[in-house]
Amino acid sequence: MSGKKLVIDCVTKTFFEKKGGTSTVALRNFNLEIADGEFVCLVGPSGCGKTTLLKLIAGLERASSGSIYLDENPISGPGRERGLVFQDFALFPWRDVRDNVAFGPEVLKLPLSERIRIAEHCIDLVGLSGSIHKYPSELSGGMKQRVAIARALANNPELLLMDEPFGSLDAQTRYLMQKELLGIWNIDRKAVVFVTHSVEEAVFLAERVVVMSSSPGCVKSIYPINLSYPRWLSDAAFINLREQITTNIAEEVG
């Protein structure tokens, strides 16, 4: 692996309730380093702070203490160097596929010809070249998520942040999207932080799987996934890793 892309240094996040003055510690002393081009999945019991951590990396929330660095620069707010993909797609219903994907370059005030070039390139990457003029209402769930990924890629981010992006898809579409994502990742090897509740999905996708403890969340275990791509769900080594990680998470729930 090459140099450090993302460094999460002793991060704690506490949420305060205005009414009643109560507080909840979502993350405590969280430490993690992610290499340039590395694919890392975060798993753990519900409420362990996976999404909170992703929001901190995205700059949508501020840490109560500790720091997060991207390419040695502290993260203090949102930035185009971090691409975000969520479960709910968040597409603009009044824009067709190409215009949805071109939104980031449009915000950057790039020339129209350049916006179109970037959008069509990213749409081609996710296999939707035949649907550039369709609207979100005309797309399946898997197609919508492809558009969301293309839109994130259109800003050429250094880091791709994905929060349960395939959680609402049926099993077959989810599997196809996992393979699609790995294909895209193999082309340009952007660093990816991927949150999922599915251990199977994590072992299928990641180079490392980070297991988080129950609230307050911190790193409990890290599993290097030393399996070559493509991976097979029926492979004995795959099943063994999946069961190890599942048992590790179950200890937190129990």
Fold and architecture overview:
The chain is α/β, with parallel strands linked by helices. Helices cover 35% and strands 26% of the residues. The protein is built from eight helices and ten strands. It has helices at residues 50-58, 97-101, 103-107, 112-125, 141-153, 171-188, 199-205, 236-253; strands at residues 4-16, 23-35, 39-43, 65-70, 73-74, 82-86, 159-163, 191-195, 208-212, 219-224. The strands form two sheets. The protein has a six-stranded mixed beta sheet, sandwiched between helices. Strands 2-1-4-5 form a four-stranded antiparallel beta sheet, with helices on one face. A hairpin with a 6-residue loop joins strand 1 (4-16) and strand 2 (23-35). Helix 4 (112-125) crosses helix 5 (141-153) and helix 7 crosses helix 8. The longest helix has 18 residues, at 171-188. The radius of gyration is 18 Å and the shape is globular. The two termini are 36 Å apart.
